[in-house]
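Supplementary notes for students who missed Thursday's class. We covered one full example, reproduced here. Read the sequence, then the structure, then the short commentary at the end.
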Amino acid sequence: MENRNIYQKFVKAEPYFHVLLWCMVLFYPYIKYLKRDGGYMMSFTHELNSLLFKMTISYFLYLWFFPKKNKKKYLLIVILAYFINACCYEYFDRFFHEGDTHFWKHFAANSLTYVSFGVVFFTIYSLKNVYRKQVEIDRLTQEKQQAEIKVLKAKVNPHFLFNTLNTIYANALRKDDKTPDLILKLSDGFRYVLHEGQKEYVMLNQELQHLKDYIILQQERLSNKIVVNFSQDIDNEKQQISPLLLIAFVENAFKYSSIIKGKNHVIEIRVLVKKNTLFFLCENSFKESAKQNIDKEWKESGIGIKNTKKRLELLYPERHQLEIEKDKDRFKVKLEIQL
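Structure (token representation):
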């Protein structure tokens, strides 16, 4: 984005630079001799004639020669253009210097002048081209990142869907009053993934609502096996965040807590946003030995922490810190993002 802005400013300012450059060339002799008796000897028409030939060779190089990929192939044409331009200038300049016979002396001097202007315009072209190429590289990089992000976000967890539908079906058979609300939350969850999840950024309160709906569905499915302590402290709920970034860590917490024997395994989830910085903590019970009990389809499905790490690197480069701590009893994720 920064390179694009610089390039756009460069392109907008370039015409003014060209006008300023040629005005300086045109009026420099008059300014130089301003305080001398009689001022500059040559007429304004003479200077315009000189300016015309300087501009001709400069823009021939700038607009035609410099953009060529294989410049060596066109060197002979450039040398010929220099020679013709210098000769034509000498011919027309004779009208202002009657009787002057120093053709080759003037020819050599003017050729050096044209080379100097060629260097100036090559510098302008090179600077412009560097920024233009960088903008193109940035554009291609951004398109690649967006394509990767779409692939990563598309990995919705079918294991969660099937288990949740089974829970809702069991509740429906019991004519549980919570069944309609569960169906609505499941519907909202998938609507969020399919619609909001495809956007570049969403409101933080939308992302957290999706997270809370997911937690409610999981708690209903896992009943008294899991206890979730969720808290949030946000100074600006309209703050934006890339969607589906936090769900992987919560999904992982439920996944590993649910396979441990016993009841009332605690999952701690805390979200804090202060001055455009998000602090996220997710901590759950964990046993390394229980990993073998995870259903293979569940283990391989979902967005996953690995994919979320990749998304964080793409979306918030050098603007996030992710710490994952794991011991024999607890699994803790701490994430900080400069939104």
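Commentary. Residues 2-148 form one domain. Residues 103-153 form the longest helix (51 residues). If anything here is unclear, bring it to office hours.
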